[in-house]
């Protein structure tokens, strides 16, 4: 491209000049907010830390286990069971089967050369 001489600054035609302090590619750089970590053991044991999103008030206090529903203590916290151990008459089985087949098909399509 031809360059033009404008008052001492060399500028490529149609591209403008570079400005000092230019923003990043995705906009202004935002500084990360560092959240304080709760280290008080009494508060960690008795309250749900971070549950209060309002400026005033306090976090929710934990209740005794007897005040929570029974199903809460039987929730599965580990990986889902293998497909072979699931009941074939349940909707969860068929959803899992579809998900696994979609993942398998996706892996096979990645290997396919066009």
TrEMBL record:
Pfam families: Ribosomal_L37. Keywords: Mitochondrion, Ribonucleoprotein, Ribosomal protein, Transit peptide. InterPro entries: Ribosomal_mL54 (IPR013870). It is found in: Mitochondrion. One of its GO terms (cellular component) is mitochondrial large ribosomal subunit. Belongs to the mitochondrion-specific ribosomal protein mL54 family. This is Large ribosomal subunit protein mL54.
